[in-house]
Amino acid sequence: DNYFNTSNKLSGKTVLISAGPTQEAMDPVRFISNHSSGKQGYAIAKAAKAMGANVILVSGPVQLEKIEGIQTIDVTSALDMFEAIKQNADKADYIIMAAAVSDYRPENIAEHKIKKSDDTIEMTFVKNPDILAYLGQCKTKKQIICGFAMETQDLDKNAKEKLEKKNCDMLIANNLFVSGAGFQTDTNIVSLLTKDSIEHLPKLSKEELGQKILETMMKIEEGKTKC
Ligand code: CTP
Ligand code: CA
Question: Ligand 1 atom 27: the closest Cα is on which residue?
Answer without folding.
Answer: 103
